[in-house]
Design goal:
Structural class: mainly alpha
Distance between the termini: 52 Å
Number of helices: 3
Strand content: under 5%
Order of helices and strands: HHH
Helix content: over 70%
Radius of gyration: 22 Å
Largest sheet: none
Shape: elongated
Oligomer: single chain
């Protein structure tokens, strides 16, 4: 691991990729959290119940 670390330290401007990657991750995380928090309760209930309904219908179809 030390070889890789030394090699990456020798490359000029490599830090910008770390910063861009971190910003993309944080930005996407914030968007997902905000979208989830703003989701209506009815839609959340539909998603929860659809998971159970899909699982029951597959078991019935294969039996």
């Amino acid at each position: 691991m030390k070889i890789v670390s030394n090699l990456l330290q020798q490359i000029e401007g490599i830090q910008i990729y770390y910063i861009i990657g971190l910003l993309l991750f944080v930005g996407l995380f914030i968007v997902i959290v905000i979208r989830t928090m703003r989701m209506p309760d009815k839609e959340i209930e539909e998603i929860k119940s659809s998971i159970l309904k899909d699982n029951d219908s597959e078991e019935t179809a294969t039996s």
